[in-house]
Write a structure and sequence with these properties.
Oligomer: heterodimer
Order of helices and strands of chain B: EHEHEHHEHEEEEEEEEEH
Structural class of chain B: alpha/beta
Number of strands of chain B: 13
Number of domains of chain B: 1
Order of helices and strands of chain A: EEEHEHEHEHHEEEHEHEHEHH
Largest interface: A-B, 37 and 42 residues
Strand order of the largest sheet of chain B: 2-1-3-4-13-12-11-8-9
CATH superfamily of chain B: Class I glutamine amidotransferase (GATase) domain
Strand content of chain B: 25-35%
Largest sheet of chain B: 9 strands, mixed
Shape of chain A: globular
Radius of gyration of chain B: 16 Å
CATH topology of chain B: Rossmann fold
Shape of chain B: globular
Radius of gyration of chain A: 17 Å
CATH class of chain B: Alpha Beta
Strand order of the largest sheet of chain A: 1-4-5-6-7-10-11-12
Largest sheet of chain A: 8 strands, parallel, barrel
Chain lengths: 255, 213
Amino acid sequence: MGLAKRIIPCLDVTDGRVVKGVNFLELRDAGDPVEIAKRYDDQGADELTFLDITASSDNRGLLLHIIEEVASQVFIPLTVGGGVREVEDVRRLLNAGADKVSINTTAVLNPNMVRDAAARFGSQCIVVAIDAKKVDNQAYEWEVFTHGGRKPTGLDAVKWAEYMVSLGAGELLVTSMDRDGTKIGFNNPLNRAISNAVDVPLIASGGVGNLQHLVDGITLGGADAVLAASIFHYGEYTVQQAKKYMQQHGIEVRL
Amino acid sequence: MSKVDIAVVDYGMGNLRSVSKAVEHVARGKSVVVTSDPSVIQNAERVVFPGQGAMPDCMRELDARNLRSAIIHAAKNKPFLGICIGMQLLFDYSEEGDTAGLGLLKGGVKRFADKLVDAKGDKLKVPHMGWNQVYQSKPHPLWAGVADATRFYHVHSYYAAPQDSTVTVGATEYPIRFTSAVARENIFATQFHVEKSAQAGLQLLGNFVNWKP
């Protein structure tokens, strides 16, 4: 026996509510973040990820308040991302009770921010989120996108992952943009390519529709953790059911 | 100054808020303060010494706040709980940045080897991150209500190698078996994050809050 593979429910939060969309569009309300966090903790979630998808910066304070609430009631690791632009944002989130902070668009616009944040707070709390899409007619297979999947960057996702780790990223959250919300499964070749290229843990994200997809994310994609949102939000499966299924398929989990 | 029950040492490193919230959760009715004031630490009934980040930075920040002697005093005199880097700092030295520690426990802190693989030949990542089993090498009051081989949340690239194996009370395998909990007299320290280890972690923290070494 050894280290368990992790299941991480993801809560997309806007204006103080958890929402879920398809391909980053068509948002549907899924409930109160503190209640949902507690429910997942009770079900045995290994960590929780909160992504602030608020378009304007007006409501950022709301998320800090939510994180404070969750952190005083739920005692598993909490990762928070979305709109993290400066080292000071990282500090604010850690002070609110986050254990890790996920950096996405800013990592592309200003890679030194990743380096500075890792140097200041330690790599263990710096997650770099990579949104990637399969591209044709390029020297590489997967390209990094920013701004919620709208802007291409011209960056090779695998090379980018290696670069981010060299700057101090302690973990990578890899989302396949063409899979997100589709329920057809993770992009396992993409995850496998990145997982083989780096030494830090990889969280697979985007596209989970059933429990076999979670298993495939580990066995085919080489992920260390699997992240999912809608299969848990709408009660299709509990985290506990997901873990039992993974265990039945030979994956070590915390039960 | 009023005497506090539990002081959580703040030297600017890591997820302090998570630690204080978990301590508050299990220490209902007791006063819990997050502090970088040596005199508050000196007067507290018990001390929690967390830590995240790189060991050289942690030592530097400790000294910048004149906390070294207060920590050493606490570790010699009252119930003292080290967490993660707060455990590593108790030893003589660390390979991380070739740093001298506080020298309260004999031995060093080493980095996991490169290119680790598990029994199936799959690559093991560093940092060692996630829920792994802790084998209770020795009985201890802080294990009360915690089953042997319970999973705790770990995040680290370095691990302690005590010179005196009798201080080891818990061990984790990745893939080597390393010391993940130590105890001596009034000191208990864990490599894993008790404040982030759900029910098992809260149980251990609660045991610490009521511990009379």
